[in-house]
């Protein structure tokens, strides 16, 4: 059990260091775009898995947003639900909240005015794309 506790401490320390790097590069310290400690916990501290999950999110988010742009509200709600879940998995809390807001609005009867909410979601996803890009750039520089 002691080895597990040490591994968790190392993972949390590394996530905190990464979080400081990302926050400094792309977001104010009080509002990180990605919760890297959460990501590290979700990937059991496996750095390669973290990177793979981030790359998959990057692709999936673009695909879902593109599909949402041309679908009826009930489909938009389902796609937003998927995006909210994926964002929660990587610690992209702003994307998760924005996607949940789109899901709720698109689920309402007669939902037609999603433009403002979709704009907020697109902006949140763009911030995560930038953060992932910074992480990938930092990895290549090592």
Give a quick precis of the structure.
The protein is an all-alpha fold and 142 residues long. The chain has helices at 2-26, 36-42, 47-68, 73-90, 93-107, 115-141. The protein has one domain (2-141): Up-down Bundle (Four Helix Bundle (Hemerythrin (Met), subunit A)).
Written account of the structure:
The protein has 142 residues and is mostly helical. It has one domain: Up-down Bundle (Four Helix Bundle (Hemerythrin (Met), subunit A)). The protein is 80% helix and 0% strand. It is built from six helices and no strands. Helix 3 runs antiparallel to helix 6 (115-141). The longest helix has 27 residues, at 115-141. The protein is elongated, with a radius of gyration of 16 Å.
